[in-house]
Amino acid sequence: MPDPDIKWKGEINLPSEEEMRSSSKTGCRFYPRCPARMDRCLTAQPPLYKIDNIDHQASCYLYDKNEVAVTGTNQR
């Protein structure tokens, strides 16, 4: 839980949006700044996975044990 009384120590350095877009042609575009990045993130864009029963989805291999979400582009 974020606590507004506890301040960050140091500065967060994120890559520029342009660097993020161009750094990954086949894998996840958030790889350069993701603290949970994995080698497989560089080889393919992860599909959308269901992360709850409400309709929240995430395109992240951290959820690869979950069911792949049904969207307009992957409906059968």
Number of strands: 2
Q: Give the N-to-C terminal Cα separation.
A: 39 Å
Question: Which word captures the global form?
Answer: extended
> What structural class do you assign from the helix and strand content?
little secondary structure
Radius of gyration: 16 Å
Order of helices and strands: HEE
Strand order in space, largest sheet: 1-2
What would the average pLDDT be, to the nearest integer?
Answer: 79
Can you walk through the features of this model?
The chain is built from one helix and two strands. The radius of gyration is 16 Å and the shape is extended. It starts with 16 loop residues before the first helix and ends in an 18-residue tail after the last strand. The chain has a two-stranded antiparallel ribbon. By secondary structure, it is mostly loops.
Short description:
The chain is mostly loops and 76 residues long.
Any chance you could write out the topology, listing elements then pairs?
Elements: H1 17-23, E1 49-50, E2 57-58
Antiparallel strand pairs: 1-2
List keywords for this structure.
single chain; 76 residues; little secondary structure; two-stranded antiparallel ribbon; extended
